[in-house]
Each structure stands twice: as C-alpha cells, then as structure tokens.
Write a structure and sequence with these properties.
Blueprint lengths: L1 H24 L11 E5 L2 E7 L5 E7 L9 E4 L1 E2 L4 E7 L6 E8 L2 E2 L18 E2 L26 E5 L1 H5 L29 H8 L3 E4 L3 E3 L17 E7 L10 H17 L3 E6 L11 H5 L28 H18 L3 E4 L7 H14 L4 E4 L27 E3 L1 H8 L18 H8 L27 E3 L9 H8 L5 H17 L3 E5 L19 H4 L3 H6 L1 H16 L8 H7 E3 L7 E7 L8 E7 L5 E14 L11 E9 L3 E7 L11
Parallel strand pairs: 10-11, 10-19, 11-14, 14-15, 15-16, 16-17, 17-18, 18-19
Antiparallel strand pairs: 1-2, 2-6, 3-4, 3-7, 5-6, 7-8, 7-9, 12-13, 20-21, 21-22, 22-25, 23-24, 23-25
Length: 670
C-alpha cells in the first residue's frame, strides 16, 4: 500500500509541477499593436495593458507620484488579444497611475506598466506625459555623429555618477545627468574635467552604465547612495537618482536628453548599457505582477531559472517579451537618439530575438552599434545552440561580443587575480594576444591550439569583436597589475598599463576602454565595486592631473587609430591579406607587419610588442624607418627614425615603425 500511495503522490507532484511550467509557457494571445502602455493624446489618454491571465484589471489615477489616495479607480475592459483597455477623456498629463490585476481570486500589487515612459519617485507609479514637453531647446536639430564602419568606434565605458561626483571635479551638478552637460569645468590644476575632458581624449562613443530606472537606490533620499544599476525596474525611463528632481517624471527625461544632446554636439555618440536579461525584483516585479510567470524562464522544478545569477532570467523567446525588448530599444533610439546598446549577459537572450533587434534597429539607424557579453552567469533551460553566446556569434552579423581571449591574454585569467598576463611576463599567452590583434577572425598564422579559451575563431568579421583589457567588472587594470605583480615598480606597472592600452587601440575589431584606465584608475583593490561608496568608484580628477603624461600617451594612441585605417581594417579578408606575423617570434615578443593596406597613407607598418622585463633586439626588412610609437611617445607625424633593419624594444613596451618602401641593404663587406 505504501508503494501505491507513493505512486499517487508522485503523479500529483508531477501534475502540479507540469501545471506550473504550462502556465508560464502557454501560448497566450499575442497583442500585435504598437500602443501598449498609457499614452497622452491631447484631450484623451489611451490605456492599454496586456494581462491575459487576469480576471479583472483596475487602473488607479493619482495626483502625485507617491502618497495619497487615487482620484479615480477605473475597471478596464478585456479585449480578445489578452489586453485590457480604456480611454480616459480629459487632459490628464502630469498625473500618475498604477495597474492592479486580479489573478486566481487574489488582487496583486499596484505597479506601473512595463511600457511606462515616465514615472514618479522610485518608479512605483507611471506618469501620463506629453513627451514633446520634455525636449530640450533645439532637440529637433540633435544629430548623432556618423559612424562609417563599426570598427571605427573607440568606446569609453562610463558611470554617470562616477564622472562628476569627485569633490574637485569642478562640476556643479555632481552625480547627475546634467553634470555631463557642463562645459569649461576644471580640475584644481586648471585642466579639463567631465565632458570637455572626454571630448579632448578623442573617443568616438561613451558607453553609459545602466541609466534606466533601477531598483537599488532610494530616490527620495539625499544621502549618498551608490550602485552600478544592473537591477532593472522601469526599462523605458531614465534613473531618478541622476535627476535634479526625481519626483517630477518629466525632469529626468529632459535632463537625460540634455546629456545626449551635449555629447552629440561634441561629436560623441551615446551607447546605453541595457539589462533585459533579468529584473531587479522577481515575484514582485512589474512583469510578474501583471502576467505571473510568463516573462521568466522556469527550471525543471517549476521555479525561476537563474542564468543571470540575480534571481531570475527573462524569456526573450516568448512573443510578448520579445516584442517588449524590440519596442523598448526602438523607443530609446527614436525618443532619445541613442546610438548603440551593450547587452548585459547577452548569452541569456535567444538568437532569433537578437536577429530581430538588429534588423529592426538598422532600418532606423543603419550605423547603430550593438554588442554584448557572449556568456551567461549560470546555466539556462534555453539550449546553447539557441543562445547569443560567443560560439553562435558567427551567425549574428552586425552584433559584436567581448573577446575574453585577448582580455585575459593581456592581464591573466580574470577570476585569478594573482595570475600574470602577457604584458606582465606570462609568455605562453602570446597566441591569445595575436588572436585579439586580428579581431578574432580566422588568420592562417594563428595557432588556435594555443589560444586560451577557443580552438577556432568565433567571428566572421572584425566588427563582431570588442577588443578590451578591462571594464567596470572586476579589478581595474591598475589594481590587477599590482595584485599580480606585487614586487614591481610603479614605473614598470605604468609601462604594462600603457602597453595593454596600446595593444587594444592598435588591434582590429572594436576598441573599448574602461573610463580612467588612461590615468591609472584605482579602486583601492576593490574587485566588485557595484555598491561601494563614491570614494572607491569616483573618477579621481586629481589623479588624472598627476598622470597627465599617460593621458597624453593614450590620447595620441586614440588619434593614431582614428587617423590610420591600417589599425581598423573593415573586413576579415583584408586582415588576412595585409597583416603578417613574424614566422619565428622570440619568446615574450609579438611581432607583425601591415603592408600596403587600403586607404592607408603609410605603406609599411611594423609592430613589435615586448611583454618581457628585458630589452629585445628585433630584425626586420631594411628601410628608412620612422618611429611612430615607442615606450615614451606617440609621433602622429613621424619625422625621425633610423635607416637599418634592427631595433631595440624597451621592457613592457610597444614599438611601431613605418616606412614608404623597403630598401636594398648595403653590402657591408665591400
């Protein structure tokens, strides 16, 4: 009998578990209109929310974004495609709202809708808004800089608060969107900070860490708070803690548009770091309070799967979340003039959704930049062959992924802080550096058996690879070099840092820099500073001044890349044709030439990278060589050099030479 009872119990358990999974993945009716949300149109407000599992839906209208009782509570009408609607007559712009659904005889929490374009303090209520009234002066004339090829981009990853919060930044609106609109700001030594500094540095794009409305900060508090922002709450709304007034939903929109306008007027594009792979809340998220379980993947036990390592993962393959992602991204492009997106843990998203995103956005903005992390933070029920992970990037033309091969080839394994990299003497990582130099495309001289994380190229073209050595995650490059090389001098560590940045900026693919790496940014050894205080995360403008020599070096490297197409060849065929590695490289040395590249004024370029602590003597074709880059200087218009075929490269440094033609070496025996 015990066996029979156990059998019955298992059948019931399996049935309940199956029901949970079924309810979360059932083919609900798909709403195919483009008017979900709450939109203001003159004397009428269109209310439209998708909630197919609800038995009732109510709409609460408030005078303010927090506190008080609703002015109206309206029962919405069910429509055949799972949406609930109502038309509210009157000019209600400036009022706030929530939705509440009844699910399985229980009223769930009040939330704004996922499509909310404006919110009150802490994003708990949506706001009815006339978006035209949020536009800065001359917004209609705002133009993005033109990006001819994606590999022309030099991306600068920046956190809004970090950029201006330092006490000596010279910026008035510290920690705010408006802080990055101020011009003429100076450090204590009278050198540029903020927007002026970024412009002078010469980068083509700023990549802003999450700037949408996120959960972790209390916008009603004026006390210092910090978070990177990878915990989304309202996807289509700027973060309120970066606004001068988080209570009025129009202010954050206007001020974020001013930030974008300011960068555009200085010929710098703006990329948003977007986090569609998970939400800050799970059970209580806006999505889950409107359609329980639908927007998230489930594990085999019927609970929330967690490839994000943040408590949940969204289900991009389900029609209504796929629709939401595409329409949300399109909204940022159309309403805010955004120039690109970096997808957090892009490997959680399915391939079809990423393809549809690309196809949709390039119709509106053909030169848009799309890239992301080609991995996850944990296992997912979505099969690997259906996910936007590195191994599948080949098929995602026009979408790039970060190359952890060159990142860790340069500095050592990212999660093993004590490990050295090629730039600090670990010479068996040279092939991983070569892999990155050619932008990850197939090159016949790369020995893929010796590359750290891949045994074959995972991209077809260089515009699918983001080449970098550090970002907001993990230690800053400066801190990492100190941890892995505790006994080296500051001078040698500085040389290593310059070398790493030099390799990134002369490699094929899309160049990516962590803000402040050019002035040896430190976080005092803190590895994961996502909620560390400003003292750890801030851009230290005094430190920038004290390392102005390194800043100048990097600034000229950026200009070198922008001026010379040889370092950003647009396709894999050209990389294979024009780049040749030394056939018998010395240990600790990476050496290659770029010869007669298209649209390149320098006919012959020779690049030598010394990852050792010793001088290296190198031989190459005899010519009248001019020095472009050495351990101390960048010569954008080189007029000095030597006639010969050998050179000495300083420890932990790069030497780049150029000439117009190879010469016949004189016979020294005659």
């Amino acid at each position: 009998m015990k066996g029979i009872y156990l059998f019955i119990f298992l059948i019931i358990a399996i049935s309940l578990n199956s029901q949970t999974i079924y309810e979360s993945s059932v083919d609900y009716p798909v709403y195919d209109g483009d008017d979900l949300g709450v939109t203001w149109k003159g004397n009428e407000v269109n209310i439209n929310v998708w909630a197919p599992t609800a038995s009732d839906v109510s709409f609460q209208l408030y005078k303010a974004g927090n506190g008080g009782n609703p002015l109206k509570v309206i029962a919405l009408k069910r429509q055949i495609k799972g949406n609930w609607t109502h038309k509210l007559v009157g000019n209600w712009a400036g009022y706030y709202y929530t939705f509440k659904i009844k699910y399985k005889n229980t009223w769930l929490n009040e939330v704004p809708d996922p499509y909310a374009k404006a919110v009150g303090v802490n994003g708990d209520r949506g706001m009815i808004v006339n978006l035209e009234n949020t536009n800065p002066d001359l917004w209609a004339f705002d133009k993005s800089p033109v990006l001819k090829y994606q590999t022309d981009a030099v991306i600068y990853e920046l956190h809004v608060r970090d950029a201006s919060i330092h006490p000596q930044s010279g910026i008035v609106n510290k920690g705010k969107f408006l802080g990055l609109t101020e011009v003429g700001t100076k450090s204590p030594l009278g050198l540029p900070t903020g927007l002026d500094y970024i412009k002078n540095l010469g980068v083509t794009h700023v990549h802003l860490l999450p700037s949408f409305d996120f959960k972790s900060l209390d916008e009603s508090k004026s006390t210092p708070q910090y978070n990177w922002g990878y915990d989304p709450k309202n996807y289509n709304v700027p973060e309120g803690s970066y606004a001068t007034n988080p209570y009025d939903g129009k202010v954050r929109i206007n001020e974020f548009k001013k930030l974008i306008q300011s960068f555009h007027s200085n010929n710098i594009g703006v990329i948003l770091d977007v986090v569609y792979n998970h939400t800050g809340d799970t059970e209580n998220s806006i999505f889950n309070q409107l359609v329980p379980n639908y927007y998230y993947r489930q594990n085999s036990e019927g609970g929330f799967s967690n490839a994000s390592a943040c408590g949940n993962e969204t289900a991009s393959e389900r029609p209504m979340f796929r629709k939401f992602m595409i329409e949300s991204l399109l909204y940022w492009v159309n309403e805010y003039h955004i120039d690109g997106f970096r997808f957090d843990l892009m490997g959680i998203h399915d391939l079809k959704t990423m393809e549809l995103i690309r196809d949709t956005l390039i119709k509106v903005k053909p030169d848009i930049l799309l890239y992301g992390e080609g991995w996850t933070a944990g296992g997912s029920p979505l099969p690997d062959n259906n996910r936007a992970i590195k191994s599948n990037i080949k098929g995602l033309t026009g979408i790039a992924a970060f190359s952890d091969e060159i990142r860790d080839g340069l500095k050592g394994h990212v999660f093993t802080p004590s490990e050295k990299g090629f730039i600090s003497g670990k010479h068996d990582l040279a092939e991983s550096v070569r892999f990155g130099i050619v932008g990850g495309v197939f090159h016949p001289q790369i020995n893929y058996d010796k590359v750290n994380y891949t045994k074959a190229p995972w991209v077809v073209e260089p515009n699918q690879t983001v080449v970098y050595t550090s970002c907001h995650d993990n230690h800053t490059l400066w801190d990492r070099l100190e941890i892995a090389n505790p006994s080296i001098s500051v001078q040698d560590r500085t040389s290593m840092q310059k070398l790493a940045i030099g390799i990134v900026l002369t490699s094929q693919g899309i160049s990516f820099l962590h803000a402040g790496c050019e002035f040896l940014r430190t976080k005092n050894g803190v590895e994961n500073s996502y909620e560390s205080p400003d003292a750890i995360n801030q851009m230290d403008w005094v430190r920038k001044d004290s390392n102005s020599v390194v800043v100048d070096y990097v600034q000229k490297l950026i200009q070198l890349r922008k001026t010379h197409s040889a370092f950003r060849l647009g396709n894999a065929a050209d990389i294979r044709q024009y780049i040749t590695f030394s056939k018998e490289p010395k240990e600790g040395l990476v050496e290659y030439s770029i010869e007669k590249a298209p649209n390149e004024p320098w006919k012959y370029i020779h690049v030598m990278i010394n990852g050792t602590d010793k001088d290296q003597n190198v031989s190459f074709p005899y010519a009248d060589w001019k020095t472009v880059v050495d351990d101390q200087n960048i010569f954008l218009q080189p007029d000095g050099g030597f006639k010969g075929r050998t050179a000495k490269i300083k420890p932990f440094s790069m030497l780049i030479l150029q000439c117009d033609e190879y010469l016949i070496e004189p016979n020294l025996k005659e």
